[in-house]
Each structure stands twice: as structure tokens, then as C-alpha cells.
Amino acid sequence: MGGWDRFVDTFFNAKVMEKYLPDILSGVVVTIELALLIVVSGLAAGLALALLRSLGVRPLNWLIVFVVDLFRSLPPLVIIVLMYFGLPYAGPSPSGFVSTWLSLALVLMAFSEEIFWAGITSIPRGQWEASRSTGLSYSQTLFNVILPQAFRLTIPPLTNRTIAITKGTALGTVVAVTEILGQASSAVSNSYNPSPLMMGAAAYIVLFLPVVVAARWIEAKFAWKR
Amino acid sequence: MIQTFFNPEIIVAAWPIVLSGLWNTILLSLIVVPLGLLGGLILALLASIHHPLVRWPLMAWVDFFRAFPPLVLLVLLFAGLPFAGLELGGFACVAIAFFLNTGAYYGEIFRAGIDSVPNGQVEAARSTGLGRLQAMRYVVLPQAVRNVLPDLLSNTLEVVKLTSLGSVVAVPELLYEARQAQSVTYNPTPIVMAAVIYFLILWPVVRLLSRLENRALAGRR
Description:
Order of helices and strands of chain A: HHHHHHHHH
Number of domains of chain B: 1
CATH class of chain A: Mainly Alpha
CATH class of chain B: Mainly Alpha
Strand content of chain B: under 5%
Helix content of chain A: over 70%
Oligomer: heterodimer
Order of helices and strands of chain B: HHHHHHHHHH
Structural class of chain B: mainly alpha
CATH topology of chain A: MetI-like fold
Distance between the termini of chain B: 49 Å
């Protein structure tokens, strides 16, 4: 067997790939579930915090800023490990899936709150005053005047951050979540062949590359003209 | 609660272990940040050659690593390469993975910086007799870096946080040592210590960034 054949036989072994394809696919399903949960809950929580902050209650804002800073400073893996290995000592023992979901959702919440808040504050006060004086209520001003403009400004940084954090679903493998990387790793140790890892890598590319390309397009579309 | 998560005896016992982890995290950061910056600079300089044969493969390269989770890259190097007869050890794998992954991110930032310098500057520099590389080195890059300083800092923060992935491939950095201490003491205090250390070191950076970002976004309208 030549060098190339041996390489293909090792890293792209058809038999091994066929055997572990169902495992990898079930990992893909878990990764997608996890990713969707993180994006939806993280962004919703981030927007909610930014809106709360716009009410301007001093002590509440200090608390929000502290929480945001906390989850921006801590490495996501540290939060996941703390939740999975630490929390059970205090009572609740979240599963690996729940630990990963909550941890990454909190991180996305923190980053997106910052971005939403920056978007809201970038709209000049005069716009608030003008729309309030035309008879719009606080929430009407917020939802019909301020947020539509703020969103446009926030979309490029937001897509970047969301992708970077959602990729973190792979961290779940550290706390035994059966997502793609977890499935691939255990298949490698069962088959003593790296082909499942190559399948896993391919699965990530298939899942995330379209998102990255779409993000590039969105960024260009919403970019501010200089 | 305090006995469980902030146990004083365990803090004292675990302190030397956690401290050695902290030093390794600092050391690791001092290696991978310059590596990533170097990788990014190479990518951005290549991208400044506005030729489709260079630009498209480069864009594909960057998008590939933006789509590929760094942990998967790390595991691929650490668990995959030995099958090709190449055993690199956790530390080397982290260095390579970071060079590739964070290099792509730094590259995008540098590229945006270079694009932000008006073309007239290059033309003016070239007409004074500076060579192409000299114009880049003395005129474009200094301005480019200044324009994207907040983004560079923000990415560096992410890189330092990312060094915690080293724990997965047994690099004895802060998180790894904390988990070792936790499994010996059957107590989560060492992990809490690690979290507190990360927070105390990185919080000032986050504060600074938050100010810079707010100013940048507000100034853009």
C-alpha cells in the first residue's frame, strides 16, 4: 500500500465511517438543538437586559453592568465546568446539556446586552424627546423609533459574536454532552481510527460555514457607508 | 455554602497548585497572542495584494476558521495526528491551533484596519519614493493598527479566555490545575478560585473595552 492509500485508509476509512455515521448524525441533531436554544435564549435575555437598563434605575443598572462584565470576563469553559462540577455540591445537578446551554446563553446574553445597549444609546436624545412630544408613549417610542434604528447598527457585531459563541457548543463534550465532537471522540476511541473525527470536522463545516458566509453578506448589507 | 464553595482550608491547600496554573496561563497567553498576531498580520498583508487569485483563497481560509470551533481543531490535532505518526503533545497542539484559529480572526481585524486607511495615503507615500513595503510599514500599518485598536484588544481578551481549552489536552494551565485540585479535594473551591482569578485579571480589560466600544458605536452615526 502506498503512502497516499495508507493515509486515506487511516483518515477516511469507509468502513469505519459507515459504521459511525448514525452516531455523528445524532451528534449533529444535539448540536443544532443546543445552538438554537443558546441563540434564542441568549439574545432574548440580552435584549431584555438592555431594555431594563434603558429605564435608567441606578442600582438596577449597576447590577446589570456587573452581571454583563462577569460573563464577559469568564472563559465559557470555566462557567460550564463550574456549573457541571460545582453546582451539584450545592444541590441542583444540571445535566451536561443544560450546563452547556445555560453557560453559553449567559455569555451570549452578556455580549448581546452590551451591543444592544450601545445601539440604543447611539440614538440621540432628541429622537426620544421628539417622538414623546408627538404623543407616543415610552414603549411606542422604544419599539417604533429607537429600536429599528438601533438594530441596524448592532447587526454586524451581533452576528459575529453569535457565531463565535454558538461554535462553543463543542465545549459541551467536556461535560459529556453527546454533540458532534463528543460522538466523534468516543467513536475514535472505540474504533481506534481517526475517521470519525474527520466526519465530525466535516459536519461542523457543513453546519457553520453557510452561517459564516451569510453573516458576511449581512455585514456588507448593513454596513454603514462612509 | 461558604464551607462548600469558599472553604478556607482548601483555599490554603490548593493555592500553590492554582498559582502554578495561573503562571502557565500567563505564559501560554504570552506565546499564543503573538503567534496569532503574526498569523493575522501575514493574512492581512497577503490580502492587501488585491488580486482575485490571492483574495478568494484567503477569504475561504478565514471563513473556514471562523466556522470551525477551536476545540474541534485542537482535538483534531491532538487525537488525529498521532494516527499519522505525529505526536506533538498538548502544548504544541494548542500553539498550532491558536496560530490557525486566532490568526484568522486577527487577520480580519488587520484587514479592516488596512482598508480604513485611504488609498491616497499609499499613493502619496509611493510618490515620495517609498517602496511598496516601505509604504505599508511606515505609513499604512501604524494608522491601520490605531484604527482597530479596540477590536485587537477585544480579540486578545477572547484569546486569553480561550487558553482555558488547553485543559482539555492536559496543558497544566489555570483551569486544568483547578480541576486537578478539585478532584483531589472533592470540593469545588479550587474551581471557584480559578473563576475568581480569571475575573479579577480580565475585568479591567472588559471595563476598558466596554468604554471604547460604546464610544466607537456612538461616534459612527
